Amino acid sequence: MQSFLVTGCAGFIGWKVSEKLLEKGIQIVGVDNLNDYYDVKLKNYRLNLLKKYKNFTFYQLDIEDFCSLREVFKAHSFDAVINEAARAGVRYSMENPFIYMSTNAMGTLNLLELCKEFGVKKFLLASTSSLYAGQSMPFKEELPVNFPISPYAASKKSAEVIAYTYHYLYGIDVLIVRYFTVYGPAGRPDMSVFRFIKWVLEGKPLEIFGDGTQSRDFTYIDDIAEGTLLALNSKGYEIFNLGNNNPHQLSYVIELIEKYTGKKAKVEYREFHKADMRATWADIEKAQKMLGWKPKVSLEEGIKRTVEWTLKNWDWLKDVKL
């Protein structure tokens, strides 16, 4: 039986990636610090779903804690490490840039150093479309991503660079997946889709930074997880965009939420944030050719599923703090 380490396993993407691997019978060792950047009710919900699998083992620790991580590597033999652990959120990274660098860059370095020490030959790093700020769309993997406009993006760029170094020096296969605006059931409450659905159901006004015409390449969580698993089959050093390849304006997302909740949204507009990107759009030709991957879930179907999940779990979701 193969054994993988998945960091950030109680996070949105880390949870879904872990779940799909567990369903394939792979032994998963999950690591998460369960921090309170957003309401831990969601992290515990996801974690409890993973704990139902007999082939899942969990450690509550931080990837910044090298000594504790090393004990995990000593106790298990890993075929691959999937690093989904990260401090997320563009705006908050401006308030506390130090924690972003220490987790996203130094945490990644800790994992790579342990891969070297314990002979783990495959490392997958979750990265972000935020790196493409200022580039022409659709974003291609070979674009120079040297001008990050937030500490979050800068920390992810740092992680990518140190990962390449360990590939070059020690022959570790490094696969980098750049995610584009992931949403879906049990999503992050600091992201627009979760917040907008909750606010609409509560009858509260939606806070929009900008005029609603900004567009995102919204990508459904199951598609993202499937692409991540396919990327694990690659060798060498590769970067893959995982996005829907079909950007939509924020205003259209609100229309869909109104449609599937049956409620009218109240909207309050705020000044556009300097660290935000006005648009994202993934060129996924490389993932299609090399991985045989393309997204299957349309935005319309994805929002419908997310609204249905929210309504089904409203008894506890109504108490989730935004």
Automatic annotation (TrEMBL):
<dbReference type="InterPro" id="IPR036291">
    <property type="entry name" value="NAD(P)-bd_dom_sf"/>
</dbReference>
<feature type="domain" description="NAD(P)-binding">
    <location>
        <begin position="5"/>
        <end position="306"/>
    </location>
</feature>
<protein>
    <submittedName>
        <fullName>Nucleotide sugar epimerase</fullName>
    </submittedName>
</protein>
<keyword id="KW-0520">NAD</keyword>
<dbReference type="Pfam" id="PF16363">
    <property type="entry name" value="GDP_Man_Dehyd"/>
</dbReference>
<dbReference type="InterPro" id="IPR016040">
    <property type="entry name" value="NAD(P)-bd_dom"/>
</dbReference>
